[in-house]
C-alpha cells in the first residue's frame, strides 16, 4: 500500500487560501459582477496579503480560472440533467433539450455564463475546465447519434453548437434589445433542424 504524502504546513496554508478565495471570489462575481473582482479587494476580504493570494494562484487570472472551473461544473450538471430528462427521445430532440438547457442556464445564471464565455476570450483554460468541455462535446455528439471518434461528427456538432451559442449570446446581452429571450429560445428548434438536414454521412 502506498503511503500518502503528508502536505507541508505551507502547502496546507496555500490549499486553504485557494479554497477560501475561490468561494469568496465566486460570491463577489455573483453578487456584484465580474468587474467587482480585484486582487486587492479579495485579499482584504480574506484577511491576507495580495502576495499570499498570488502565491496560491499565480495572479488574478488564476482566481478566475478557479471560478470558471466551478461554473463549468455547474453548467455540466445542468445539461446532463436535461439529457437524462429527455430519456430515449430521438437524437434531434435530445440535442434540442441540451440546447434549451444551455439557454436556460445563461438566462438563470447570467454571471456564471458571462464568466465562462464572455469575460476574457483569451484566458487560458485550466485542465479541469478543458476536460469538462471535452466531456460536454462528447455528450452532445452521443446525444445526437454521432460518433465522438469521428472528426467529421466532431466538427459538425461544434458548428451546430456554435450557432446555438451565438443565439444565446445575442439574446442574453443587456446591450442588445432586438431579440426577445423567449422568442430566441424557440429558434433553437429551427437551428437544430437546419443542422440535422445537413447531418454528415460517413
TrEMBL record:
Location of the HTH tetR-type domain: 15-75
Gene Ontology molecular function, alphabetical: DNA-binding transcription factor activity; transcription cis-regulatory region binding
DNA-binding residue intervals: 38-57
Top-rank lineage group of the source organism: Bacteria
SUPFAM superfamilies listed in its UniProt record: Homeodomain-like (SSF46689), Tetracyclin repressor-like, C-terminal domain (SSF48498)
Repeat is among the record's keywords: no
Keyword Iron-sulfur: no
Keyword set, alphabetical order: DNA-binding, Transcription, Transcription regulation
Official protein name in the record: TetR/AcrR family transcriptional regulator
Organism: Roseobacter ponti
Amino acid at each position: 500500500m502506498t503511503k500518502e504524502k503528508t502536505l507541508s504546513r505551507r502547502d496546507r496554508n496555500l490549499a486553504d487560501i485557494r479554497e477560501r478565495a475561490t468561494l469568496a471570489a465566486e460570491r463577489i462575481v455573483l453578487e456584484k459582477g465580474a468587474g467587482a473582482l480585484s486582487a486587492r479587494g479579495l485579499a482584504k476580504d480574506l484577511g491576507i496579503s495580495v502576495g499570499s493570494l498570488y502565491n496560491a494562484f499565480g495572479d488574478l487570472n488564476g482566481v478566475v480560472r478557479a471560478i470558471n472551473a466551478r461554473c463549468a461544473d455547474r453548467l455540466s450538471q445542468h445539461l446532463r440533467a436535461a439529457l437524462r430528462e429527455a430519456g430515449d427521445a430521438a437524437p434531434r430532440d435530445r440535442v434540442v433539450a441540451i440546447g434549451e438547457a444551455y439557454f436556460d442556464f445563461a438566462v438563470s445564471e447570467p454571471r456564471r455564463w458571462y464568466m465562462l464565455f464572455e469575460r476574457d476570450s483569451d484566458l487560458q483554460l485550466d485542465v479541469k475546465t478543458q476536460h469538462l468541455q471535452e466531456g460536454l462535446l462528447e455528450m452532445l455528439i452521443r446525444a445526437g447519434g454521432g460518433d465522438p471518434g469521428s472528426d467529421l461528427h466532431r466538427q459538425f456538432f461544434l458548428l451546430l453548437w456554435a450557432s446555438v451559442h451565438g443565439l444565446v449570446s445575442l439574446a442574453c446581452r443587456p446591450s442588445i434589445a432586438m431579440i426577445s429571450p423567449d422568442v430566441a429560445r424557440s429558434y433553437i428548434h429551427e437551428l437544430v433542424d437546419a443542422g440535422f438536414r445537413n447531418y454528415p454521412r460517413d
